[in-house]
Design brief:
Helix content: 10-25%
Distance between the termini: 67 Å
Oligomer: single chain
Shape: globular
Number of strands: 18
Number of helices: 13
Largest sheet: 5 strands, parallel
């Protein structure tokens, strides 16, 4: 089926509570909306303050690819028969045969963005240009109240509104992170200092700068450095690439390493003690913050080709460096004060433009959920507690009413490194819908990894004993 059907959504009485309100329409809530689409008995609406769907527009660099296979679209890993698959998107554009012959398992970022915009344009119940202002609990009606402002084309407020719902799905995503020592750079007038999220919007200006510095050793930093390198004349590149990690390291992409992004590992991680989870999150950076090997190879090839006629390109690539402080020098330059963590040495670098590939952070839920603060249950670090069904732990007076708040991409502290991974989007959305409907609306696999992550076999409770890994008997310490 190349054209998705458009069943009439349930008729919604103005004051009647909805079954689900989604706040934010990024890939994760778009996945939830796509899988909810055929559930005609479900009254759902999704809101986003942006005028239309957009996925990291500043990083849609020509040739850059997403780091998960195309099967990790919005729906396939939960329902490959859905009309909202990436393959059906290709069919609707008469592009199946070109894609078949291209033999691409990993698609370009721009193509993934185009696919998501196709889904967003076709789904009913998505309301862009709506800013969510507050969320409250109404104990008299046992529903959540969601206040919003409808925005005009220029972002101006046009009307106020309120909707009621039994369940909420928070998918407000992440925001660009600028480390404290670098915040003064962004505010410096006359000097192009931009976060990687806005790179393409400022690319032409950055290319005119005499010397450019890229800060950040992850995938975004690598892609931007490669893009700038290819655009600079040989021998006059004048590029610096700095990173805090000890090496420009490849992302862990071995077959068994990738099993950290399975539902099996997510369940295992969620069951660990809080202190263990916190320790693991910081130690597993290379599972999701490294650079894919193809990008590393392309950078090395580009640098190597510039040595064919003798000499070396005018570039400096230095890992293990942190920016201590930074400031404006005169009106057209920036001075970075650097520290090499292994050598314990310091130096200064003067540059004409800076790209901050310093990553993203989860948007805090507290601002949006301020009205629910008395009802939220928190862990020892004052973070929201989130159960295995991706529901916030709320006061029993709310949960007893069978009303819940689900979260998407805000649960790394409880669900691990797979939280922002596109490959788990469909599974998490299906888990949420199964919980919300109280039935197995989307049958999900009981086992997804060859690795058994712990000695406790309860992570595969529904698999017959013969199909589970052998039970390991704990060793007895003879010295006791």
């Amino acid at each position: 089926m190349s054209t998705p059907p458009h069943p009439h959504p349930p008729h919604h009485e103005p004051d009647a509570p909805r079954d689900l309100v989604g706040i934010g329409i990024g890939p994760f809530n778009l996945s939830l909306a796509a899988l909810a689409h055929p559930l005609t008995e479900l009254d759902a609406a999704f809101y986003d303050q942006r005028p239309s769907f957009a996925w990291h527009p500043g990083l849609l660099i020509d040739g850059s690819r997403i780091q998960v296979p195309f099967l990790a679209d919005l729906v396939t890993l939960a329902d490959p028969t859905s009309p909202w698959t990436f393959l059906n998107h290709l069919k609707s554009r008469d592009r199946l045969f070109p894609f078949y012959f291209a033999e691409r398992f990993h698609i370009q970022r721009a193509e993934y963005d185009t696919y998501c915009r196709w889904v967003a344009a076709g789904l009913p119940g998505l309301h862009f240009g709506h800013q969510i202002d507050a969320v409250r609990w109404n104990p008299e009606r046992d529903v959540f109240e969601v206040d919003y402002t409808q925005l005009g084309p220029d972002g101006e407020a046009e009307a106020l509104g309120r909707t009621h719902t039994r369940n909420i799905a928070l998918g407000i995503g992440t925001e660009p992170h600028v480390p404290e020592p670098l915040k003064t750079l962004v505010e410096a007038p006359g000097v192009p200092v931009v976060h990687s999220a806005d790179y393409l919007a400022h690319r032409d200006t950055i290319l005119t700068a005499d010397h450019v510095t890229v800060i950040g050793s992850g995938q975004s930093g690598a892609e931007i450095f490669l893009d700038l390198l290819r655009a600079r004349p040989a021998g006059r590149e004048k590029l610096h690439w700095l990173g805090r990690t000890e090496a420009f390291a490849p992302m862990e992409y071995s077959k068994l390493g990738l099993e950290h992004f399975t539902p099996d590992y997510t369940r295992y991680f969620h069951a660990l003690p809080e202190a263990v989870r916190d320790r693991l999150v910081t130690s597993q950076w290379q599972l999701h913050k490294g650079i894919d090997t193809d990008t590393i190879a392309a950078i090395h090839d580009e640098l190597y080709n510039r040595t064919l006629n003798g000499g070396w390109p005018d570039v400096v690539l230095t890992p293990g460096v942190r920016v201590r402080t930074a400031g404006r020098l005169a009106t057209t330059k920036v001075e970075l004060h650097l520290e090499h963590t292994q050598q314990d040495t310091r130096s200064r670098l003067t540059t004409d433009a800076v790209v901050l590939a310093t990553g993203y952070r989860e948007r805090p839920l507290d601002r949006l959920l301020a009205g629910l603060d008395p009802y939220l249950r928190r862990d020892s670090s004052d973070r929201p507690r989130i159960d295995e069904h991706f529901r916030l732990a709320l006061d029993p007076s709310i949960s007893a009413s069978n009303c819940h708040i689900y979260v998407q991409n805000a649960e790394r502290h409880t669900h691990g490194v797979g939280t922002p991974d596109l490959g788990l989007a469909a599974w998490r959305s299906a888990t949420i819908l199964n919980s919300l409907t109280g039935k197995e609306t989307y049958p999900l696999p009981t086992r997804t990894a060859f690795t058994t992550f712990g000695l406790d076999q309860q992570q595969h409770p529904h698999i017959p004993r013969a199909r589970q890994a052998p039970v390991l008997t704990p060793l007895v310490d003879d010295r006791q």
